[in-house]
Design brief:
This protein is of the alpha/beta class and about 425 residues long. It has twelve helices and 20 strands. It has two domains: about 5-205 and about 370-425, Ribonuclease Z/Hydroxyacylglutathione hydrolase-like (Metallo-beta-lactamase, Chain A); about 210-360, Rossmann fold (3-Layer(aba) Sandwich). The strands form four sheets. A six-stranded mixed β-sheet has the order 1-2-3-6-7-8. It has a six-stranded mixed β-sheet with strand order 9-10-11-12-13-19. It has a five-stranded parallel β-sheet with strand order 15-16-14-17-18, sandwiched between helices. β17, α10 (about 340-355) and β18 form a beta-alpha-beta unit. The longest helix has 14 residues, at about 210-225.
Length: about 425
Amino acid sequence: MARPDELVFAPLGGVGEIGMNLSVYGLGNRQQRAWLAVDLGVSFGDEEHLPGIDLIMPDISFLEKERKNLMGLVLTHAHEDHFGAIIDLWPKLKCPIYATQFSAALFEAKCAAERNAPDIPVTVVPSGGRVDVGPFNVEFIPVAHSIPEAHALAIHTEAGTVLHTGDWKIDPTPTLGSPTDEKRLRELGEEGLLALIGDSTNAVRDGRSPSEAEVARTIIDLVKSAKGRVAVTTFASNVARIKAVADAARAADREVVVVGRAMERVVQVARETGYLDGVQNFRSPEVYGHLPQDKVLALCTGSQGEPRAALARIANDDHPEITLNRGDSVIFSSRTIPGNEKAVGSIMNNLVLQGVEIITDRDHLVHVSGHPRRDELRDLIAWTKPQLLIPVHGEALHLHEHAKLARAAGVPPRAGLPQRRPRQARPRRSRNRR
């Protein structure tokens, strides 16, 4: 017979894969449980394995059946693999949504840009704040990541406290936002932590992830030494990287031209929420051709080879305002997500044929991961002292290595290789992106 205060965890996405994150926590017994959902993200199709498929979403049929017992959806942060499925799937759930200010603002902007998006209210919770969601008391603990206001969630229940890390790293010198709140995480360890549900993305990598401050210094050096036009492409949501590019442009006496609607949207939200206070105003693409070659920097979407994004159109000489020529430079301040190698390689090849110099993280420290390497994972275990650890957010190898690391640190892991689950695929459709 299950205990009345039994706490259960079930990943409906984001385990055995990178992306499509959806986790649920249940409190109660087998006959009656209250449920809390954490994140509702997508993964992306590719032409080789899923031709014609744009987005892949988790199967929420279980939550649909438990809809009356679903207390709410809490967002750790505003990356697409954590909140990209909400517009499509929320109408089937219609539960309350809780997020901090930047995530809520970016979601509102995303809805405004989506044709016929439903009206989806979001309750804003302050960073470091707590909110009661049914029998769950959820605490938002700031962590460093590659987007503003990423948070680990301490889920407090009568059966114990669980730490759901979301995406995180330890960065003592972030260029934007708060560092990971070591003090509060240590306090959780002293108070007693039932389980750590932990990010496994970089569990195969030794050492520590470098700091955003190191990347910022590298980008400044590269931009200052460039002779012709410079274009930088990065993940649009990485506001710290956008700020670093702006600082580099200012140091080199260049104007920043923002190219691509996703980038424009994030810049607008970042300014509205104060994350680009003190950063110079950016220019629109129409100005690009009127600026001297050594006085312009184009900040572009398309780091993952998206065919309709700005950089692909530039590489194909198909953009109405932006061109690059021999002697110009493109900095790929990003990593290529597995599955996108062919598309990114095609863009690089086209740029090289135009005589453009390509700069990537193979040559310079122009990108760092937002996820923890093995020493950071060990630190978190030492701080929080969990009774058990459940690796999530990773493919089979990542989960396996995270479990081995936990076992070596004296924490019993609870993990098995996940079975393949059905997903919902959305056919590709025009995004009308520049």
